[in-house]
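User: Please predict the structure of the protein below. I'd like the answer in structure-token form so I can feed it into my own downstream comparison script.

Assistant: Understood. Taking the following sequence of 274 residues as input:
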Amino acid sequence: MTELLARLARSPQGALGLALVAVVAAIVVAGPMLAPYGPDTMSVLTRYQSPGVGHWLGTDQYGRDILSRLLYGARATVLMALLATALGTLAGACLGTTSAFLGGRADEAIMRTVDAVMSIPSLLFALLIVNLLGKSSLNALVAIGIAFAPGMARITRSVALAVRKQDYVSAAIARGESSAYVVFREMLPNVVAPVVVEMTIRVAFAVMLFATLSFLGLGAQPPASEWGLMVAEARRYMHLSPWMILWPSLAVALVAIAFNLLGDGLRDALNPRT
């Protein structure tokens, strides 16, 4: 782990991504304690206030402090994106590894089904699932996880095909181990590196996708302080207070950039050729 962090720190994009993700993690953990006001504290007298002393990022249409809502909303946005990515990664990794182990017609049937699902854009697929399940943050999380699973299955299978030919897998089969044992104990742990890199990059897409679903009214519901929902509520008041839509949009963009940079750094750090 120490060697991996050292390699990551030697890469400019890795070091910057690691620093930004550390800041995001600190905000997710300590955000509510750092917030100067409650996320739903209203004040009619301070509506549409510009950034300044007392309200560093200004206030919204209800006089709520935007900085406080961003700090509280970090948990809703970032944690949901991480959980959705983890769900999609776990499902896709298990499916891809199992497909590579089975081979033959089973592999062909699974991968053709995955290809058919992958032909649907992730956003459209997530919208379809949320419409079927109903509007809520939990359903949006499930929808994003399902939308990410096929892509992760395809990536995992490409690595697992090489692992399937290794001697330790053949030895496990020769010992009479069950298929589940071979897949989960022998093959899956050895495809972790590329899966982790892809997962890190996909967190950025999950943040944007979750914010998009909330923006469309299919994810978090009012009065939640989720960033996409904040953008959706602020668009009607852009002519009165442009900072209302500026700050949550920047927050989504910065988190996406942070995880993209970290993913690029991990790709270089875990590359055996380097």
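That's the full token string. The chain has one domain: 2-269.
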